[in-house]
Amino acid sequence: MGYIILRDTQMQNTDGLGRQDDESFYTWASRIQNAVQYYDTCSRIGYKRPPYPRSRQAVYAYIVHIRIIVSRLPNRWYCTYCKFFIDRGWLADASMDQAVRLHLYSCPKHFNFDYYTHHAEMIQKAFRRYIERRNNKAARIIQKVAIPWLYRPGSPLIQKAE
């Protein structure tokens, strides 16, 4: 990964990557390190964790790297739960996040999926228990008749046992 080293100047904070008010250097550097890892994963550049930036110049280099990746990425969202990319489209309106919301409802590793499918799972579980009870009841009825018949005096099973 080639990172551009910048001079120690203030960068514009229009995309939220700059240092926030009352934010320690460690918190800022960790946030930028996580963002680099996220965007590298989104762009499929690399999957390993980038080294911790130990100076402001290294953090600024990471920010430049993030901005380069963001400028080249299509407008896709990366689900960190199931590792799946969602195409958000190119229009800047409220329906842009509809694909993301729909995915979160259907993502099996997201809490919304569990919340919205909990009732269906309860119904399925109750139905499975009913079918199992019905099958066990039928087996018990057959067993009550079949066992005395198999072990009746003079049956082939008893003759072999003698």
Summing up helix and strand content along with how strands pair, one would put the structural category as mainly alpha
**Widest sheet: strand order?**
1-2
* Helical content (DSSP H or I, runs of 4+): 55-70%
Query: Measured on Cα atoms, how large is the radius of gyration?
Result: 31 Å
Question: SSE order, as H and E?
Answer: HHEEHHH
- Rough outline: elongated
β-sheet strand percentage: under 5%
* Largest sheet, strands/sense/barrel: 2 strands, antiparallel
Count of extended strands: 2
Helix count?
Answer: 5
**Average pLDDT, all residues:** 76
Describe the protein's architecture and organization.
The protein is mainly alpha-helical and 162 residues long. Among the domains are: 1-73, no CATH class; 124-161. The chain contains five helices and two strands. It has helices at residues 25-42, 56-72, 98-106, 111-150, 156-161; strands at residues 76-79, 84-87. A two-stranded antiparallel sheet has the order 1-2. A hairpin with a 4-residue loop joins strand 1 (76-79) and strand 2 (84-87). The longest helix is centred in the C-terminal third of the chain and has 40 residues, at 111-150. The radius of gyration is 31 Å and the shape is elongated. The relative contact order is 0.08. The model is unreliable at 5-10 (pLDDT under 50).
